[in-house]
Fold:
Amino acid sequence: MQPDEPQLVERIQQGNLSAFNSIVERYQSLVYNVSARILGDQFAAEDVAQETFISAHRAIGGFRGGSLRAWLLRIASNLSYDTIRSKKRRPDASLEESMENPNFAVPSKDPGPEQLAIQNELQGKIQGVIMGLPTDQRAVLVLIDVQGMSYDETAEIIGKSIGTVRSRLSRARARVRDALMQHRELLPERFRQV
Amino acid sequence: MRTDNVLGPFRHTSDDRRRELLSPYIDGELTDGEAREVEQHLASSEDARQELTDLLMAVSLLNNLPTLEASRSFKLEAVPEPEKSPPRWSSLWATGLATSMATMLLVSLVVGDILDVLIQTREMAVQSIERFEQAESAAATALVPASAPTPADHEPRSDGGTEGGRAASVSEPAARQIEAANSVAPTPAQELTDVAPQAATSQQAELVAAAAQILPSPQEDTTQPDPASGEQVADLQARALAAPIDPPKSPKPETTPRLAPVVAAVAIPPASAAVQKSSQSESAREPQAFTAAPDTDQEDVEEPPVVETTEDEVADTTSVAAEFAQQTVAPELASAPAPSPLKTSPSPPSVGTSQAVDEVVEASTVDDQSVASVPVTDDVQAVGALETMGDAGIDDDTSSPKLVASVVIGDRVDLQTDEIMTLDRARKSDNAIELPLRQIQVVAGTIVFLLAATTVVIFRRRRSPVD
Structure:
């Protein structure tokens, strides 16, 4: 928790909306990216991010301290799981579409045409591999390897032990590695020569 | 090679563990011991080193995934309204309804089952009590003839006007036999023949036998009894009862009263015929003389001529008649398939007649088989107990002189012990089939109830994302 967060939380609990919006501004990208990587759908991720902050504002009165970021990401991951379950009940779009979603390809600053195409394809493949993981492994992989969180904070977010986080992450990484080895031609040149 | 095959699973388990340790090794999340173990493994295994390299490549690619940009801001423009109740009302109503129905089903199953068990238990208890009482009364009835007549047995007894002048006082067993005999073939002669074997003294037996010769046989028209004969019978009966009590002359006084009176009362040919036969066999007075069974069919029974006999002859004849009835006539009846004596009775038995027959049957069969009156139901028919419904049948087993006790009394039938046991076994087997069905019903109801309850819990405990 950042130094000013306890005061912000106190002000939010007193009904200060601007204080809450400052929290939103601080974490909205993180919440959105975690949701988007877990869901594999940026539009759904936006809905989840919005719902995350609404739910957080409603529940902020029960916040008893700790990591506000972890608390928000816990809400976001739970809402992402709910969205995945509802999509499974009402499959309006196949997961294959989400896996090949070109929106996940973010162009680099100075790409050549060929490099841009390969980069987009690789990023799409990686997102596809992530979407192929079980939901519990996917969240751990996204939080630690994509968002760079620690094992402890990830354990707090998913509500599991560090041992569980380590095990899930190890299995998720092994699967990603095996999947990427099947598309070695898309890897950067430094990895292709290995 | 062989060792590798044997230890294969353990070796792979160890490799899997080391492979799993590579991931936290990259992140520095291993203990010192685990880290040393991984490093030793990497130093000794080229495959492990390649695996680590590939894993680092994958993690690097994941770490370098670009940050996605949302198309809009998620700042709140207004304070959101308080959250409504999570469960949807339609789902709540549906699950509540399902729960109520499942609960009602379960309760109805359980209550119905309990009531069914209680009713069946009560019915079984009542039937057991009835059987016990009937067996007890049958046993008591059978024991009475063995005792000497008491003064109470000589109390005057009125049997109604149809009996004419037959309102004489008789002993209790004799009265029973007379009643039974009247119910089947109400002729004074046969009545006295029935009394004869039961007579407590030889003097009584003589007098009764003499009266039997005087009175008409069953083949004669009995609708209008001869008043003169009735008076003679009454007189003889009175004299018989007033006579001093002597030890019985019968060679088997303890056993003969059981079955012989029954046969005499229910099925024997006219008493006068028996007396006639005994008179004709006067030279050979041993009971063996009667082993040649007479034809008991009534069509073959000719009207017996009146034979003049002395008192001694009557006495001998009377005592031997009982032997004849027990040893000869009863087996003959047992071997005779049909028609039964009751079937060929001149007049169909009324309810009172059936009851009298029932008493006789109970008294006669108490030694061998207990008799119980049970309602006529499907399972009674199933055990074949009603094959002789409507009449008193004769047991097919010719070696046994017993009477089949399948006598219909209204909607009830008397069963012997073996038949009752067969019926009980059939009913127990039915219960054994019904029991698993009830258990299945209860289990099914419980499962439905639990499913409905679980559904309600799931809907009501819709997880809050904040949890």
